[in-house]
Amino acid sequence: MALVVAQLAGRIALSGSSYQGVSRLANPKIGWGFGWLTFCYPAIGVAAIANALASQAFMPLFGMEPDEGTARLITLAILLVQVVLVVASTRLVSLINSTAVGLELALIVLVAPALAIVVVATGRGDIGNLTSRGVTEHTEHYFDVGGGLMVAMIMGLATLVGFDSAANLAEEAKDPFRSVPRAIVGSVVAAGVLGMAFLICLTVAIEDIPGVTASESPVAAIMREQLGPEMEKVLLAAIVIAFFGAGTVVMASCSRIVFAMARDGRFPAHQLMRRVNPRTQPFPKELPPRREGAPSACGGGARVGGVAVGERTGIGRRAGGGAPALPRDDPRMRLRRELRWGLWGLWVACLVFVLWFVWEVVALFLEAESW
Questions:
Q1: What CATH architecture applies to the domain 2-365?
Q2: Per-residue pLDDT tens over the stretch 201-217
Q3: Cβ contact 7:249 at 8 Å
Q4: Contact call for residues 309 and 324 (beta carbons, < 8 A)
Q5: Residues 6 or more apart from 1 whose CB is under 8 A from it?
Q6: Phi/psi of residue 142, each to 5°?
Q7: In this structure, how many other beta carbons lie within 10 angstroms of the beta carbon of residue 141?
């Protein structure tokens, strides 16, 4: 999926990610549907991140008793602060994100070896945890289609999303045709490799599987058992900053989807939502020059390759009336020719369809008896 998004971002450097790509490669009606789906995911995700921050890091850091009502109030406060930051300054959001990413990398690079050293030195932990089913040891249908393992794999996939934020912010990037695809692929590789190493160390360090499973904050519980309460506080503080930065970027990404659709007149209150303050949100009047031979895109609200998109192409004016009128040399056809798959591209696309779409639909909608 990351490779497909990177391929599109390398040709269509516009805010809106899949909304922009589908509007050009298919038609504006399908793009409108993808735009709303793309908007809903980060809109829900930013609230989920804030709630996880509140319940899994912030409350344990300050010694607060687990309470869902308190966690929800803290979640609302976090979201309000993030809204203010995103509206106030894109550069401030960038600084927060850079700080959060640095702390996150330091957290993984330092804590994972520390946990491994403590486990080896003290003997507390078990390498057998890596193959143990834990509290599901005697559960039937665990490996069945729609069973516990498949649902757990979806949770794992959810931790690797967010790479499309780079595509949503492409209009504000320097040299987006190169930097955005690199950011997308690099973030997925780094998150997959480093995150897996951290999870392996955490899993090996578990002494009491039932106790950690029942804990409201399992990661904090593992760190407290292995590294002591003082180190736990330091690590929880770093996790708070990392979660806050991730949520802020997701909110900024969501706002760019709203902006992209509003710019085409395809979002409620679009005249208000497409306004940009040039002092705090530095959207360029014109995008960087496109690659040699790259086709002009139709749609959007900026100027791409000499084509004023939005007003002149008709997507904004005919949002509900079918595909816009196209010039004789259809830009969408030229864009499709430019987006040639290459040697392995078609196989990658097929693999994405099978693993991402079919697998998740089966896991979500086929119910097993173990549920």
A1: Up-down Bundle (1.20)
A2: 999 999 888 888 888 77
A3: no
A4: no
A5: 352, 356
A6: -65, -35
A7: 14
How many residues would you count in the chain? 371
Based on DSSP, count helices (H) and strands (E) in the chain, helices before strands: 16, 2
97-150 pLDDT, tens digit per residue, is: 888 888 888 878 888 888 889 888 888 888 888 988 888 887 777 777 767 777
| DSSP bridge pairs for 308 | 303
DSSP at 327 = -
Please choose, from the candidates 58, 64, 41, the residue with its C-alpha nearest in 3D space to the C-alpha of residue 243.
58
Lowest mean pLDDT among 268-277, 283-292, 351-360: 283-292
pLDDT bin (cut points 50, 70, 90) of residue 34 is: confident
Q: Could you please report the per-residue DSSP string of 100-159?
A: HHHHHHHHHHHHHHHHHHHHHHH--S-GGGGT--GGGTT-TTTTSTTSHHHHHHHHHHHT
pLDDT at 329: 47
- Distance CA(212)–CA(199), nearest Å, equals 14
The span from the CA of 98 to the CA of 353, in Å, is 33
Burial state string for 241-255 with b = 16 or more CB within 10 A and e = fewer than 16: bbbbbbbbbbbbbbb
Is 262:270 a contact under the CB 8 Å cutoff?
Answer: yes
304 phi/psi in degrees, rounded to 5? -120, 115
CB crowding 221-236: b at 16 or more within 10 Å, else e? bbbbbbbeeeebbebb
pLDDT at 171: 83
So what's the pLDDT on residue 79? 94
Contact between residue 115 and residue 257 where contact means Cβ atoms under 8 Å apart: no
Going from N- to C-terminal start, the domains of the chain cover 2-365
**So what's the pLDDT on residue 231?**
80
